[in-house]
Specification:
Number of helices: 7
Strand content: under 5%
Largest sheet: none
Distance between the termini: 19 Å
Order of helices and strands: HHHHHHH
Mean pLDDT: 88
Number of strands: 0
Low-confidence stretches: none
Shape: globular
Oligomer: single chain
């Protein structure tokens, strides 16, 4: 399992249980972590779907909202320009367990890590 997935499990308090790719693909766990990172996300992610129930449409809406919010946070709050290849939202929505889906999920987690370690609360996210 990826070190980023392990980090996410610890952040959301599920260190002893499995965090599945489907759970990550829904976007709700990412939203929960980001809401703890900064107040910026509390308002920008207020319309996130909490109950996705496997809906590709809701997944896509959640992930697009997350990605847009993270990019805005990096640019407006952290004064960073993101130069990495962005995650492919459709790959995560339709096939999170595919190679492309896994790579895209990792990219989402890298963006979350960037937001967390560059935020005012960085000490809480990096040991």
């Amino acid at each position: 399992q990826s070190p980023l997935v392990t980090w996410m499990r610890e952040l959301i308090g599920r260190a002893d249980s499995d965090v599945t790719l489907d759970m990550l693909a829904d976007g709700t766990l990412f939203a929960r972590v980001l809401s703890d990172v900064s107040e910026f996300f509390a308002s920008s992610l207020s319309s996130i779907h909490r109950e996705v129930c496997g809906s590709v449409f809701r997944r896509k809406q959640n992930l697009e909202l997350l990605l847009d919010s993270m990019l805005k946070f990096c640019q407006e709050e952290l004064k960073l320009i993101v130069l990495m290849e962005l995650p492919i939202i459709d790959a995560i929505c339709h096939a999170p367990d595919s190679e492309e889906g896994c790579i895209s999920l990792e990219r989402m987690m890298m963006l979350i890590l960037t937001c967390a370690v560059k935020s005012e609360r960085a000490g809480e996210y990096v040991a």
